[in-house]
Amino acid sequence: MPLGGPDRNPVNSENQQTVTLTTSGPEQTQDIGRLLGEYADAGDVFLLTGDLGAGKTCLTQGILWGLGGVEYARSPTFVLICEYPARLTLYHMDLYRLDSLDEVVDLGLDDYFLGDGVCVVEWADKGTEAFVGDHISVHIEHIGDQSRVLKVSAESSRYSSVIDALTKRFSRLADANEFESTQGEAN
Ligand SMILES: Nc1ncnc2c1ncn2[C@@H]1O[C@H](COP(=O)(O)OP(=O)(O)OP(=O)(O)O)[C@@H](O)[C@H]1O
Ligand SMILES: [Mg+2]
Question: How many domains does the chain have?
């Protein structure tokens, strides 16, 4: 069975909604995560990509706080999955150490993805082909010491309200620099 959230709404590339936000410090990235956590529903899946130190764990910290969790999420370096209690249980996964799609599939993560918690996957690009259910993608680009560009996108109407909320609440962070002009282009 393919991994990813349950396919409750049809995925249609015409439905794709994207917001691109530039943060100028970790707290702003955490604030974006906090909103994602506040809006999260049971079964939501966040697929995070970006280089080492981009800010994937930083975003996850905010997601946990937005879910009402009080812990400080850290990269699950030695274990593959960390579980945090919150309004909805957060399953924080890090695929960095995996080398192939087969290894990702062999983990048998379906129970997490199809369960009632919220899944956040760092280095989701290690298993792109496996994650076909509804999800929100967040790609983080390191553009300066304290500067990061977060491209948040979803292809399902399931996530429309959170993308709308991000767009409104963080409008001051949108389209802040030239990099933003790539928004909407295929890449
Ligand atoms: N705007 C920003 N957003 C997020 N993190 C930032 C920002 N500016 C500086 N940082 C710093 O960058 C680092 C991001 O580290 P983090 O562990 O979140 O990255 P990561 O993408 O999870 O890396 P890894 O792939 O190693 O797990 C932190 O030290 C954080 O303080
Ligand atoms: Mg990390």
Answer: 1
Instruction: Print the domain residue range for 119.
Output: 23-181
Residue 95 forms part of a structural domain: yes
CB atoms under 10 Å from CB of 71, counted, come to 13
Of the CA atoms within 13 Å of residue 88, those in its CB half-sphere come to 23
Q: Whose CA is closest to atom 31 on ligand 1? A: 26
CATH of the domain at 135: 3.40.50.300
- Is 57 a domain residue? yes
Per-position pLDDT tens, the chain of length 187: 445 555 544 445 567 899 999 999 999 999 999 999 999 999 999 999 999 999 999 999 999 999 999 999 998 777 789 999 999 999 999 999 888 888 888 888 888 988 999 999 999 999 888 888 899 999 999 999 999 999 999 998 999 999 999 999 999 999 644 444 444 444 4
Structure tokens given for 73: 């999420």
- What does the DSSP 8-state code read for residue 116? S
Is the pTM higher than 0.85? The answer reads: yes
Q: Ligand 1 in contact with 139 (CB < 6 A)?
A: no
**Position in ligand 1 atom list of the atom nearest CA 123:** 25
Q: How far apart are CA 65 and CA 33, in angstroms?
A: 8
Within-domain flag for 5: no
**The two structure tokens encoding residue 51:** 């280089």
